[in-house]
Amino acid sequence: MPHVEISHFPADLDAAARARLDADITAAVTRAFGVRDGAVSIGLAPVPKEEWTERIHRPLVTERADPAGLLRSPDY
Q1: Which of 13, 16, 34, 38 is deepest in the core (most CB within 10 A)?
Q2: Residue 6, beta-bridge partner list
């Protein structure tokens, strides 16, 4: 605990970019939740652009069952 799942358009992240992303997210999560870094897991979930609205935006943003659980909304 906690787990962060990042849905994103397909992107080729090299090892350095993946390491930076890991370090940045882990630092923010450990600071916010007061856990050790070994307790954090992070998943990357590429979603094709043409499937984004149906798979991500609609169910997880605009029609989210618990709107209070959405920390930040996109501006599109």
Answers
A1: 13
A2: 44
